[in-house]
Write a structure and sequence with these properties.
This protein is an alpha/beta fold and 302 residues long. It has 3 domains: 128 residues, Glutaredoxin (3-Layer(aba) Sandwich), CATH 3.40.30; 42 residues, no CATH class; 95 residues, Serine Threonine Protein Phosphatase 5, Tetratricopeptide repeat. It contains 14 helices and 5 strands.
């Protein structure tokens, strides 16, 4: 009798293998979410370099209690992007491309809440306090943000002109630039029709925001190679193409100031410092540029 029971149990285990709570395949997870009418919880971690990620993994993500509660409403997706060790080149690049698509820089952990179509409706950085049950409860509470977004989209669909444009901007503004541009193209196209002159300045803001993130990434790649002339070129190209203003222009110009300073081009560096100061002398970049300018003048014997 016992032998028959064990054989039956073995058959069931083989026929119905256990499915892991977490997957790293967002495409497959999205299909599951559409089928099961669930949302997706996507978390980017780097457990080989981040203590916060190690804590989150140990305390929450690996907890069966958390997984069972969260899976009631979410398909769970985890991307563990190593910063110290290298994975197989193809897998590593796939992770990097996915992180870039969501605008994930060097901040880990970063979590996204997605609807079944794969559109993010909320983002969080860092680790929240509490145990598995509280953490799962937090996830379930975030679903209200999806309902709020969907209600807002339905309400906007009944509007027209700038009123509709403002309603769409209010819904999209809290989301990261990359998320808006990569996942809400339909709404951005609609905004272009509703507000062709971009009087709300939202489209330009998002496009520049993403371009600035790409600019920073490009600068980091060349700055530490002592390629200061390339940094200057990147800055001039960015300003020429996007015409940034205010704080953003100061940030971009400050990269040029640093490159000229490190490269020993002191006179041009002073001119850039003056330009940064002229935009806003009371900002952090303005004050710091003033300090650098005085040091540069001393090096020139003034």
């Amino acid at each position: 009798m016992g032998s028959v029971f064990l054989k039956s149990l073995l058959f069931l285990l083989i026929a119905s293998p256990l499915v892991a709570a977490w997957t790293s395949d967002l495409g497959t997870a999205q299909k599951t979410a559409e089928k099961e009418k669930k949302a997706l919880y996507l978390v980017f971690v780097s457990t080989d370099s981040s203590g916060a990620c190690q804590q989150l993994e140990r305390r929450i993500l690996s907890s069966e209690k958390f997984q069972s509660l969260a899976e009631e409403k979410f398909v769970l997706v985890k991307v563990d992007l190593p910063l110290k060790k290298r994975l197989q080149k193809e897998n590593h690049q796939r992770m990097l491309d996915l992180a870039k698509r969501f605008g994930v820089g060097g901040v880990f952990p970063t979590s996204f809440y997605l609807d079944a179509r794969g559109r993010p409706f909320h983002q969080e950085n860092g680790v929240l306090p509490g145990g598995p049950e509280k953490y799962a409860g937090h996830l379930l509470g975030i679903l209200q943000k999806r309902e709020t977004r969907d209600e807002g989209l339905r309400a906007a669909s009944k509007m027209s002109g700038l009123k509709k444009a403002r309603a769409l901007v209010d819904l999209l503004k809290p989301l990261p630039d990359e998320v808006v541009l990569n996942f809400y193209a339909e709404q951005m196209d609609e905004l272009a029709e509703l507000d062709p002159e971009d009087t709300l300045k939202f489209r330009k803001e998002k496009v520049i925001g993403k371009a600035y993130a790409d600019f920073e990434e490009a600068v980091k790649k060349v700055f530490h190679k002592d390629s200061y002339d390339q940094v200057v070129t990147l800055v001039d190209e960015f300003i020429g193409k996007h015409a940034p203003e205010g704080d953003l222009k100061q940030k971009v110009l400050f990269r040029k100031l640093a490159a000229l300073n490190h490269g020993g081009n002191l006179e041009p560096a002073i001119k850039v410092a003056d330009e940064i100061i002229s935009i806003d002398k009371e900002s952090s970049h303005g004050r710091f540029s003033a300090q650098i300018k005085e040091k540069l003048k001393k090096r020139l014997g003034r």
